[in-house]
Known about the structure:
Strand order of the largest sheet: 3-8-7-4-6-5
Distance between the termini: 62 Å
Helix content: 40-55%
CATH architecture of the largest domain: 3-Layer(aba) Sandwich
Strand content: 5-15%
CATH topology of the largest domain: Rossmann fold
Oligomer: single chain
Number of strands: 18
Amino acid sequence: MTEYFAHSPKEGYPAQTYAQHVNGVLNRVRCFASETAQYSVLDGKMLLRVSEIAAIYHDLGKLDQENQPVLSGHKAARSLPINHADAGAAFLLDDTHISILAAIAIASHHMGLPDFVSESNRGESMFRDDRVKEAVDAALSKYSRIHDSIIDTKPLADTSMPSGDLPVFLRLLLSCLVDADHTDTAIHYRKYPDEVNTIPLRPAERLVKLDQYVEELKQNGVNDERNTLRNEMYFTCRDTIIDSAISSCDSPVGSGKTTAVMAHLLAQAERRGLRRIFVVLPFTNIIRQSVKTYREGLVLPGEKADDVVAELHHRADFESEDARHLTALWRAPIIVTTAVAFFETLASNSTATLRRLHELPGSAVFVDESHAALPSKLLPLAWKWINIYASEWNCYWVLASGSLNRFWTIPEIAGVYNTNCIPEIIDDRLHNQLSVYENNRITYKCDLWPKGTAELVDWISGYPGPRLVILNTIQSAAIIADYFSEYYGRNCVEHLSTALTSNDRDSVLERVIKRLNNKEDADWTLVATSCVEAGVNLSFKNGFRELGSLVSLLQASGRVNREGILDNSEMWTFCILEDGMLKLNPGMKESASVLKEYLERQITVSPELSTQSISNEIALYGLSGKYKNLIISEELRKFPEVDRDFKVIDTETRLVVTDSNIADNIKRGNINWKELQKVSVQIPKYKLDELGTPKVLDNIYFWNIDYNDFLGYMAGIIPLIKFDGFI
């Protein structure tokens, strides 16, 4: 009997047979889809049925006589002669219409979800590859006969359509198929373990552990009124019963929100039967402090901390067989990630990115510092997704902040999901008591005359330290840090931004905390980007923030005189002068103009302005152009447009490693996605192209110019800026 293959021999591993792969993918897709379906309100059974159909026929085209010599290893080729995804789509789109949705998933399982408007205009070629359509149609019956002789499972037709939101359903469907496909392939090539022990959430047990952790903090802390209120905040959040699928938590700086909201989520997860908790922090945030707290307070005896609480610093998504095992997944019971990685996954049409999405249904999602999670122009579509996952896929959402803006009350953002009835986890009495400590903690001041590098550094240095300075771009922060070091000494400055790898950011953060705890060490400055505005328990004497949004200013102020025990602490807003070194952030132009008007009119800066600032921004600039059309593109299922336009950070970036040994290990397959997250940075692709930065694998690059643990990859760029004008 002729043997048919699905994957060619590689790196000493044999070819994988067609039967092995299809049956492997089918078993995994049943597992993924059935777990997801448990949390569906409307379409769970359909998701399981259609996923099975797609799994069975997804590689039908690999049976083509031109593809088999390559897959068996008898013929070398960079790609298959015949697009193998077309056959499965053609088979399911024929006159019997076994499943149109499964056909779409198969057609998309390498190229990603297409533009349905463009596809509908193609008539009979819809969801087909015109380059091979004629050849595939001629051979389709032969493919089918061979397939039936190898694969025993014969699925029933399913021509129905989802009752719920179709774009979300299609993304989840493709997610189940692609994760099963990529996982099975990675296992065959020994780049992924055969069995992965799924760690259950066990919310009731983790809540007991968290109670013990908080009690220990209380016993070791100062017994004052503020800590008493923090304790009340914890138990109020833990014990509050919320029946709706979305709630909010407006809690001031220093109220213990990190542990209190987690207690609430665990209690809700136990009550609702949820399987996973996501903590979503602002898009450029330093997440390690939150991760450290959760690992100390939630890991049970016998468990590995990084298996229970996963940290995802940035998106790491790879399509090629050589790099699929490096894709960051959502399989841990508790996941701490950034808004970029989280919300851009919801928006994606890419197979590598969507691979993890099926893990979201049945989760509690804590959008911490929700005011800073997304630019206002992206909120309408994000709010729609929040509501769909809440109502159709049993997700429970908590939107929390120390300066909460209730964007869901703004008609231009909320759309048909407009509501004033999102319940609060804490009542007005407790909120007001906690807010007392915000009074007179700092004084907001501004100097809006633009300053160049030297003038800005000299001005900041005239104020008592320790000082916090926040710039709007990585380049500006590195330039200012470098100038401080050159003219005032390296000991007078620390630098913290995403120009540094996660491991190096951790080291800087530890050093900053140590210096802040040393009251004799005061005359120094931390220069940073907005990554320190949330999720880090830091407290400086004075703060300086480049003109940006009101909510960013409020959040940055939470890192100044955090406990309210210092006198005369100030939070300054300043403007930079583009002097060939410093660089403005065009993405903040609109929100900065709103704050500038408030400051010039001497309107008091306060959390109560948060929602108003977004309304003013929309009133001034509207949700114009591509952002206004995002909702329409989603409804029309123009998936590539949604993926392209829903970008938290407009600049296209790539993953870059800075150590040659790491690059070699990646090539040899000796590194996993968790390790990659810690030793890599994201750098704009245009910079990599201009520098001719070498590629390691897929979309992973190697930084072959200077990198150090002070300025990160900017150590290689600053000399170019100084001498060559490179920006």
